Amino acid sequence: FTFPSLLVLLLALTTVIVFLKSDLTNWLRLQDQNPCACEKCLSEDNLLALHRLNHSVEPFLTANTNVSADAFRWWKRLQHEQRDFNYYKSTVHKLFKLFPPVVDYGEPSSDSCRTCAVVGNSANLKGSHYGSLIDYQDVVMRMNTAPIKNYESDVGTKTTHRVMYPESAMDLDNSTHLVLFPFKINDLKWVIQAFTTGFYGRSYAPIKSKIKANKNLVMVVNPAFMRYVHEIWLKKKGDYPSTGFMALILALHICDEVSVFGYGADNDGNWSHYFETLKRKNFKTGPHPGKHEYALIHELAQNKTIRLYKGW
Ligand code: C5P
Q1: pLDDT of 43 higher than 70
Q2: Which residues pair with 177 in a beta bridge?
Q3: Does residue 79 have a known ligand-binding role?
Q4: What does UniProt give as the signal peptide span (predicted)?
Q5: 273 vs 151: CA distance, rounded Å
Q6: 87 is in an annotated binding site
Q7: Across-strand partners of 118?
C-alpha cells in the first residue's frame, strides 16, 4: 500500500462507520417511537394506505368539541331533526353537566397493546365457537340488545363497551361503558333523562324511559365522526352508515389491534341476527349500504389491517 491509497482506504472506512452509526441511531430512535407495544400497530402503513383514516376527527363528544355547522347540517338530515344548532349546543352543554366532560379512552402509547373485539350481530356467529377468542381481547364491544346468555360459546361473556341508541338500549352492569350513537337531538336528551327524571318522549319504536348503567362510563359519539364515516369511509354511499360499521371505524381509532366478529348478511342479503329468526324477509340492510360496508371490511382484512372472523 502506498501512503495515499492507505489514506483513501482509511477515509472510506471512516465514512462507512459514520454512516452505519447514524443509521443505527435512526433505527433505534424509530423503534423507540413505535406507536404501540403490539407486534404490529394499527396506525402503520396499511391503514394510511387506504387514504381514509383521519385522526383529527374526534371520535367522542367532549364539553369542548366544536361541531361545525356543516357537520350539524349533515347530522340533522339523518332523522329529520327540526330543532336548530343553538338548541343542539344547549343540549350538549347539559349533557356534560351530568357525564364526564372528557372521555378517557386511553390514547395509544408505545408501552401498551390494546386489542379489541368488535362483535356485530350477524347470524354467522351461530356455531362459530368464537367465545373464548372474543373474551381474550382487552376490549369487547357489543351492539344494541345482543344477548350473551345461551350464546356464550359463540359470542363469549365479556363486554367492556356496549354501543346503543335509545331505541336499542338495554341496562348495563357497573363496569360496562355505554357508547351512545346519537342520531338526533332527542337521543342526547334521552341519555340525560334516562339517567335522571326518566324520558317520556316518543320515537319510531318504544324507548326505555330509564336506564341502569354507570354514568361515569358514558361515551357519546361525535356527530362529526358519524359524518366522517359516511363521507370519507363510505364515500357517501347509502343514507348513512350502520351502527356496526361506525363501531368498527371507531375501533380503528382507539385500538392497537382489531378483531372483527359477527358481520355479514345471510345468503338472501338480509342482516339476520344470531339470536333470532328473521322477521322481515325483505329487510336487506335497511338504509345502510350493507354490501359496500362489507366490501370495505373485507378490504381491511385482506390488507391485514383487521382480523376478520367470518363465522359459519
Ligand atoms: O342488527 P343490528 O343493528 O343490531 O346489528 C349490529 C350491527 O352488526 C349492524 O349495524 C351491522 O353493522 C352488523 N350486522 C352485520 N350482519 C348481520 C347483522 C348485523 O354486519 N347479519
Answers
A1: no
A2: 161
A3: yes
A4: 1-22
A5: 12
A6: no
A7: 141, 260
**DSSP codes of every residue in 251-308:** HHHH-SEEEEES----TTS---BTTS--S-TT-TTTTS-HHHHHHHHHHHHHTTSEEE
- Which residue, judged by its Cα, is nearest atom 18 of ligand 1? 122
The three three-digit cell numbers of residue 242, written as one number: 350502520
SS3 185: helix
Give me the residue label for grid cell 356485530.
120
Query: Which numeric CATH code is attached to 36-309?
Result: 3.90.1480.20
Q: How many CB atoms lie within 10 A of CB 162?
A: 24
| Residue whose C-alpha is closest to residue 178's, from 166, 165, 194, 161 | 161
> How many angstroms separate the CA atoms of 185 and 179, rounded?
16
Average pLDDT, the chain: 91
Q: What is the DSSP letter of 91?
A: H
Residue nearest to atom 10 of ligand 1 (CA): 244
The pLDDT tens digits of the residues spanning 127-152 come to 999 999 999 999 999 999 999 999 99
CA 1 to ligand 1 centroid distance, Å: 77
Q: What does the buried/exposed string (b/e) look like for 37-49 if buried means 16 or more CB atoms within 10 Å of the residue's CB?
A: ebeebbbeebbee
The C-alpha atoms of residue 90 and residue 239 are separated, in whole angstroms, by 27
Q: Which of 201, 233, 202 is nearest to 53 (CA)?
A: 233
* Domain range annotation of the chain: 1-32, 36-309
pTM: 0.89
